[in-house]
Amino acid sequence: MLLLLMLCAAASASSNVTLSLEGTLVKAELAPHSPTDLFIQHTNTNYSDFYVPQCHARKYNFTLATGSTKETSSSVGNDIFNSDSSMTLINDVNNESIPVYCVYTSYNISAPVPGGCNLEFNFENDPNIHSWYDGFRLWLEFQYASVKRLECDDQKGWDYLTYSVYAIYLQVAGDQDTNFSDMLRDVITPAGIESKGTKIIEHTQAQSNKPALVVTSYPDQGVFIAVIVEDKLTGHKSAYVPRVSYGCDIDRHTSGHPCQVQWYYYLLAAVITVAGLFITFLGHRFFAYELFIMGFLTGLLCGFIGLLAARVSVIGLAGGSTLIGLAFGLLWALLWQCAGVVLLCLILPAANGGFLIASIITYSPLVNIKMFDSWELWLIGAAIMVFTFLAIVIWSKKVNIVICSFLGAYAIIATISVYCGASLHHIVIETVRRASVKEYSDSVFSAPFSVVDGVLVGLWATLTVVGYAVQFYTEKSKPDFPVSPRKKRLSRKLNAELEERERLLNDPNIRNADEYGTLHT
Predict the structure, then answer these.
(1) Helix spans in 187-310 (H)
(2) Predicted TM-score of the model (pTM)
(3) From CA 106, how far away is CA 51, in angstroms rounded?
(4) Shortest CA distance to 78 belongs to which of 455, 88, 513?
């Protein structure tokens, strides 16, 4: 009886996962600090093939061991041949059971072996994409592939292998585990990656460079990074083990969603929405309030860039930039109160409008063109701002209304984007990063654009047109710009003096008085 209990306990302490169908996901629960054996029962009788078994966890790291060799990650696999048919999964990082999804793919031996020329990492053939997140960018590195006919150090064969890097974005809305597993099925084979992903860069092996790159990444936005290696001589393709990232360090976010946007950013987004609604439909009519909002947005942006560059805490970043924005908004409204020079006060609306237009340009694959370096992008942005100011000088009223509607509409849809998991609010974030993060322009730009984003772009255009129509109709019979309070006070004072002078001149007692210098006796 005691022996039976011991056998039952041993059976419960270790579990097995068997992969019998190629391309079929098998979900397993890894108990903490308990090994789970992974077996492949392939049906392919061609013993010249090789296999890439792999396991993935959405938000946890775990260890995959082949013999005495181990690799720890949230997405990890290995190249194995028929002599190696089993591996071990170990949940040695977490104190709770974690779900993992395992699958395998097979390739003809003539196909490139992903990571077959590994010189740095643990496995002899390492098909994994190694990544780390620095708070703004995703750093990626993988090992070159090998082919049967060539040695790894044979430079003559390097030009025949090309490495295409793809980004496949996950939906932010909905059940994240379901989104993760559904997308994982499509990104384990070259055909699935090509149909679902967006190619962000193509790499060819050279003696002087490593297979490494830096990609833009955004908090709370899940993305699979996948690499396809193609032998151009034979046409065979193989896929590396895809790597998922949520724009954060998963070691610090192990509960709920891998990395959630903090609540005070949602609150700030709601405040900006109210301001956006106001300037979209009433900004030009209430000119002083428009200037305060423009000053607030400018100060908020500049403060955010400065504090981000200083690497202050997250709370300090949100609170400090908000205070700077309020102070700058009051200052700019006070400038209007005191000086009352319209063109001087319109500098900020023009700059903000030009800044947003320039940000739209930088939030596009155009920035991946080699001819556009960091300085050229900033010069293009400055030129757009100058052009916007010249336009507002010539057509002051109309252009100011357009800018109010354009900026206000973006403030509205950016907040909707934050709440519904779209990506349009990243337009400004991308420019802020380029201004505050050193060498950020060296990153390969990649960003999602979903159906929701397309709907929001249409809503943005509609709000801009409707806002312009409403403001232009209500203001068409009024002066181009209101008179500043200081000029009103001066005008009232001058009118009072004129009225007093006129009253004195028309007073009969004063008019009939003796002329100045008359002597009375």
Answers:
(1) 190-196, 263-282, 287-309
(2) 0.81
(3) 4
(4) 88
Rounded-to-integer distance, Cα 27 and Cα 146, Å = 31
DSSP class of 203: E
- What sign has the CA pseudo-torsion 306, 308, 314, 318? positive
CA dist list (Å): 209 to 34, 36, 127, 147, 440: 40, 38, 19, 20, 19
- For 40, 114, 232, the CA distances from 238, given in Å and listed in that order, are 19, 7, 12
| Domain chopping of the chain, boundaries | 15-252, 263-475
pLDDT at 491: 66
Taking only Cα atoms into account, the Rg of the chain, rounded to an integer number of angstroms, comes to 33
| Token duo for residue 472 | 């232009």
Pairing of strands 50-56, 75-77: antiparallel
d(CA 449, CA 421): 11
* C-alpha to C-alpha distance for 250 and 241, rounded to whole angstroms: 18
Residue 404 phi, psi dihedral angles, 5° rounding = -60, -45
Please indicate whether residue 303 or residue 338 has the higher confidence score (pLDDT).
303
Determine the angle formed by the axes of helices 314-338 and 263-282, rounding to 10 degrees.
Answer: 20
Name the fold adopted by 15-252.
Answer: Immunoglobulin-like (2.60.40)
Closest CA to 91 of 141, 17, 165: 17
Name the H helices within 339-450: 342-345, 347-362, 374-394, 396-420, 426-436
What does the alpha-carbon distance between residue 358 and residue 352 come to, in Å, rounded to a whole number?
10
The token pair at 261 is 């946007």
DSSP assignment letter at 128:
B
Q: CB neighbours of 289 closer than 8 A, spacing ≥ 6? A: 278, 282, 283, 333
Decide: 142 and 128 in contact? Cβ < 8 Å. Answer: yes
State the amino acid at position 216 in one-letter form. T
The DSSP letter of residue 426 is H
Give pLDDT tens digits for 152-181: 877 777 778 899 999 999 887 667 788 888
